Protein 1
Amino acid sequence: MEMAPRKRVEYYCPNGHDFVLTLLLEAEVSEVWDCPRCSAPARTNPAQLTNQADNTRNRTPWDMLRERRGIPELEQLLREQLKELRAA
Ligand SMILES: [Zn+2]
């Protein structure tokens, strides 16, 4: 099987949970992506980070639940995106 060319996009979480997404080269890069660990809006450009991080410091059990659900949902989104790109 032939691998399509990929690119790595770095996202900077306002809470310091930087992460990297691997996308197809032709995929559109979203400037904002919810952090898989704390659901804060992570950005490709760290200069655009705001002080919204302050709102997430006092975490509730609900926040922690969302945090655990974040990664599988992110992967599901990515899979759907890849499927659409392959079909196009
Ligand atoms: Zn985070």
Protein 2
Amino acid sequence: MSEKYEGVKFRTVFKSKDIPVDLRLETLKMWAKKFDEYRLAPPYDGGSAGNLSYRVNSDSNKFIITGSRIGLKCSLQDDCFVMVENCDFSNGIVYASGVREPSSEAMLHFAIYDKRKDVQAIFHGHSQEILDAAKTLKLPATSEFYPYGTKELLQSVILILEKHSVIIMKDHGFIALGASMGEAGKLSLQLIDRFQNE
Ligand SMILES: [Zn+2]
């Protein structure tokens, strides 16, 4: 998590400049704010290190995700969010609609939605305390550290994905997977309680 943020590592092809229109954005904004409040998305120069998304329809992998380089501290506007429609993993392309690039982990979110049809929301955060407690709490974790936004990181998560609802990315951060945003959010906040009570 001490990695320097260098922007997204894929190419975004914009299918349109349409800003997502969806009532559920308000729920996502609320959780983004909580991530900031609970220090699960530490600020860096120009943004916050964390990304949150939800699946748009249960029968497709399309999702709405926080844009790259947005600060979760400020109240987010609708144009801070991007709809990801598809990913071309072999060519490193993300197809999206919106006015900014999707989060650097957009491909990871896509791969999880593709493998886990039960998952409707994915929240990814960073917390040294959670990483420190992960072993004691016996949370499933990737075996190697890989830089953010890489294919290797994505593959290491998919490898241990199974039916887990919380996954630790070694020396990096956590991912909470929920059947709703509320569930992914609760799982994230519970991690804080768990390391505090450990
Ligand atoms: Zn991360």
Protein 3
Amino acid sequence: MTIEEVRVFTTPLPAKQSYTMSNSAVATPYSTVVEILDSSGHKGFGEVCLASPQYQPAHNDGIRASLALLAPAIIGCDPITLNTINWAMNEALDGHTEGKAALDIACWDLSGKIFDRSVTDLLGGRRQENILTYHVIGIGTPEFAAEEAKRLQSQGITRIQLKAGGRDIHEDIACIHAVSAALLPDTDLAVDTNRGWTTAQAIQVSNACADLNFSMEQPCSSEAELSQLKQQISHPIIVDENSTDLRAIARMISSGLADGFGLKISRLGGLTNMRAVRDLCMATRTPISTDDAWGGDIIAAAGIALGATVEPQFSRGAWLAHPYHQTHYDEINGPRIENGFATLPQGGPGLGLIIEDGKFGEPIAVYK
Ligand SMILES: [Mg+2]
């Protein structure tokens, strides 16, 4: 069995509600979808979509450009040999994990269809029936944030991520207090600045909220700043943007810097690399979430497939962009959130989605 053709599509996923981070607001990201066809007649889908060009070094047009080098490198490879696929991609292009992630996910979906098994089974098997999700409250006033927290909890959401940073620090502190006052006893709060505070500001916030229970997600820009911060605050630190690869994650676990990770499939380069990170984090009892930075049903299904394999005790949940854009590629099986949980798509083997031919129009590139 060999990969014969890679088709690349793009499709818009506009935000239907406000989604504002410390450094950017989400408008209309264009997702990159890849479809891989093999010599046995099976096909698999992968996807990557970044919320904004300010969020990380990569951007959506760059992902599509990287596929011009990555896709030809895997033509002729056996799609079930995922390590070989990743070696071939790394030989063809350094970095550019996002394009690699799209192709890697498509090979996992394709492998599931070849073996007639779910991607969750291929990743080691299910440890959770329903996968916890969390919801984001964007940058806004304390009143808006508190109302959002109440609304989300009334829908069954028990994990809330409050965005902060990029404005007067006292507004952030007021929002954290307002949301904390609106939390039910079992609701977990993370305050995520997407690298938005200096170390001194993060210490100021921690001191001003010393009696409040929340974790700080990526409060500062660099691993060095986080390391400095860790010595001076008692709030747990969750690392997102700096969790770039297995080596960095291993270092931050062993130094005691990270109390948990927000993992992005696109940043780590796909499910193959995520599997290795998951195993390291489970072995070291480090909580993780399996997220991405935007995207539709395909990347959401990949995040849930991996999230289902995480020990419940160490699961920080999976994040889906669906509530913010309301778009489905598969109206029946596309992942959605009910009572704060997502379930695995049931449309068949692989990622469990049924995507009709022509769903994304004509391909913008074909490699064979
Ligand atoms: Mg984050």
